[in-house]
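Quick entry, no commentary yet.
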Amino acid sequence: MATELGTIAAARPTGWPRRFTVVLLFFTCALILYIDRVNISVVAPVLMTEFGWDPAVTGTILSAFFVGYLLTQLPGGWLADRFGGKSVVGFAVAWWSLATFLTPFASALPLMLAVRIGLGIGEGVTPPALHSMTARWIPAHERTRVIAFDVTGVYVGIMLAFPLSVWIVTHWGWPWVFYSFGVLGVLWAVLWYLLVTSRPEEHPTISAAELAYIRHDLPEVAPVEAVPWRLFFSSSAFWALLIGQFCTLWTWYMLLTWLPIYLVKARGFSLEEMGVYAMLPYGAMLLTANSAGWLADRMIRRGVPITLVRKGFQSLCFVGSALCLLLLSATASPWLALLYITLGLGAVATSAAGFLVNHLDIGPRYAGVLMGLTNTIGTIPGILAPAITGFIVQFTGSWELVFYLAAGISAVGEVIWLLFATGEQVFE
C-alpha cells in the first residue's frame, strides 16, 4: 500500500489540496467552539462576585451547557451521515454564536441557564457532524493525525480564551467576552459555506489527482439509509468505546470547567496569573495530541496492529491522568499542582490516538452516528462532573475527593478498554 500511495501522491499537481482547507476549517471550528464553551469558566470568578453565585450555583450553571449538548449529538451525527455535513455544521455554528452573543443579556439565573442550554444545543451537533465529514474527506492513513490536529483546535481555543477573556474583562468589561466571540463564529460560518462541500467529489475546484488520492484509501461511506442499532448495542467494541469515552471525558470536563476557579480559589493565583498559567496544561495537550496522532499513524503504517495502537495510547491517557490527579491531591505547593494538572491533561490528550478516532476504525460509514451516540453518553460527565464538583467543594471543602473520584473513574475505563476495545472494522 505504501508504494501505491507514494505513486498517487507523486502524481498530484502542485498547489493547495482542498482537503487541507477542510481540515483547517475543522481546526478553527473546534477552536471557536471551545472558546465559546469555556469563556464563562474564565470569567466565572468575576461573575461569582458580581452576582453572588456560590460554588453549587456556579456548578449548576456550568453543567447547564451540557444538557443542551446532550440533546443534539445523535441528531447531528445522523443528519450529517444521511444528508451531508456542510449545512449541518454551518447552521450549528451560526446558532451557538448567537447564543454566545446573547449571554450578557441573561443576567437572571433562569435566563442564564436557558442561554447556556441553547449554546449546548448548537455545539452538540458539531462533533459528530465533523466526524462524519472526516470519514468522507480524509483517507484512512491520514485520519489519526487529522483527528489529533482538529482536536488541538480545542486546546488552542482554550489557550486563547484564557488570556483574551481576561484582557477583555480588564479593558472592556465581561459582556464583551461574549459579544466578540459571538461575532467571530458568524464570520467563520460565512467562510464555511463559501469554501466547503460535504463530499470531495462535490467540490468544484478539487483536482482529479487529489480526488483519486482520497478515494484510494477511503473505506466505503455511502449515505446511511438505516442505522443498525441492535448491532451496535450487541458489540463489545462499541461498549468499550462508549465507556472509554465516558471515563475520559469525566476528567476532561471536571478540569475544563473548574480549572480557573481552582487556581484562583484553591491555589491562590490572581485572576491575571490564572489567565497566563491556565494556558500551560492546554499547551501540553496540543503537543501530546499531535505527537500521539503522528506517531500512531506511523506505527500503523509500519505494521503495528491498530488494536495495539489504540489500546496503548488510551491506556496512557487513563493511567497518566489518574496518577497525576492522585499526586495533585497530595501536594500543598501551587506550582507542583500546576505541574501535575499540566501533565495530567497532557496524558488526557493522548486519547486523540485512542478512543477519539476509534469510531472511524470500527464503523467508518456510521462515524457520525457512532460519535453522536457515544458523545451523548459522554456528555453525561459534562453534566455531572461540574455539578458534583461544585457540591463536593461546597459541602465538604475538599478538592481531594474530587480528584479521587476522577482517578477511580479512569481506572474503570482502563480495565474495560483493555478487555474489549479493538481497532478493526466491526460495522460494514
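second:
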Amino acid sequence: MKNRLGLRHFFLLGNILLFVLMIAAIIKDSRHEWEGYQKKYYELAIAETQDKLAAAKTDAEKDQVAKELKFWKSQHVEIKQILVPKLDRVDRCITCHVGMDPLTNPTGTNDFKEQPFAAPADEVHRLHPAEKFGCAVCHGGQGLATTVAAAHGEVEHWEKPLLRGVYVQSSCEKCHTNVEDLKINGKPAAPAIIQAKGIIKENGCIGCHQIRGWGGPISVDWSSETADKPLVRIDFTHTGLPKDQWTLRNWIKLHLIKDPATLVPGDPKAEFNAEPISPSGMPYFAMNDSDADAVTAYILSLTTEEIPKEYYVYAPNAPEPQFSSPEAHGKFVFFKYGCAACHGPDARGGRKNYNYQNDVEPNLRKVVSTYTPDELKKKIQNGVQVVGKKDPKGPTPPLYMPAWKDKIKGKELDDLVAYLFSIADKQEQW
C-alpha cells in the first residue's frame, strides 16, 4: 500500500513539474528579443505618419497619408525572411531591421537614426537590393538567427561574424574583380581594399604567401588556407585575447600589429616535439590600425565561397604597363614577385630569419656586386633552398629563397638583374 502511495505521489509530482516546465517554455517562447524591436519600429512608423497626416494640407495628400497610417497600424509582429535560392541563403535580418524589408518599405529608406530601425539612403543598398542579395552574403553574421548576438554571429563556434566598418569592404572583392574602378557617388567604393593591395605590394607579401596559387611557396595560400581557416585550427593561446574575441579577423590583424613570432612561437628547443621548430618567419610589420584593418579586410575577401557567375562583375584585362628603361621594368618585377618580403622595399635587407647564420636577410645593395650578371641570374633561378644555421642543433630557419626559374625568366629576369645592379652600392666591370 505504501509503495502504491509513493508511486502516486511521484507520478503527481512529475506531472506538476512537467506542467510548470511547459508553462515556463510558453512564457519564454512568448518573449522574443526581436518582437520588441519590431513593435518599436511600427510605433515609430505610426508616430511619424501621424505627424505627416497632421501636416497634410490638401485632401488628396491627407487621403494618401491616411492610407499609409492604416497600413502601419495593420502590421503584426512576425518572423520575416528573405530567400535567395541562387546564393543558397535564408536571411531573417529584416525581422529586426524592418526598414530594410522590401515589402513593408519598398524604398529601403527612412529618417530613423537609431539601429536596428534606420534605413539610410545610400547607393550601395540601392544597387544591391535585399531580395536579390539577401543580407549576410555581404554583411556576414548568421542569417537564420533571430537574437542579436546570434544574428550578428558574435557567438562561440560561428565562423563569420558581422562585418563592421572597413571590413564590409571585404565583401566587394568577392564579386567585383574590378574593385579598383568601382565607384559609389563618384568615390572609391572599397578604398580599404585598394589601400591593402598597395601595402601588400610594397611589403612583398606575395613573395612568401600565395593568392589562389600565385606567389611564393614559403607560407600558406591566403585564399585556400587563411580566408576560410576554421577557428578550431587556430591556436589563440599566445594572443592574450579573451575567448569572446577569438575570431579569424582578430587572428589575422594581430599578425600585422604584433610580432608574429610571439603568436606562433614554435618549439625551437624541441621541448614538445621530436625536432626543433622555429617561430613564425613572418616579419614584424608593426602596422597602424588603419593599414592592419585594410590588409585584414583584403585577406578575408579571398574566401573560396562559391558565388554564382551572374553575381560577378569582371574587370577588363589591364593594359601592359610601359617602362622607360630596363631598370624601371626590373623594379616593377622586384615588387611583382614579392622580393621585398625578405629583402625589404628598398632592397636593404634586414628581415630577421630565426637561427639563420647571418641573423637577417642580406642587403642586396651590398651583395649584388659580388656576382657577375650571369651568376646573379643563376642565383635567382635556382634559389637558396638550404639555409645555413647559426646553431646546428637549432631549428631550420623559416625563410629561404625559392627557385624562381619557372616564374622569373626572359626579359623579366634580365631587367630584374639590371635593376639590382643599378642600385648596388658598388658597381663592378666585367
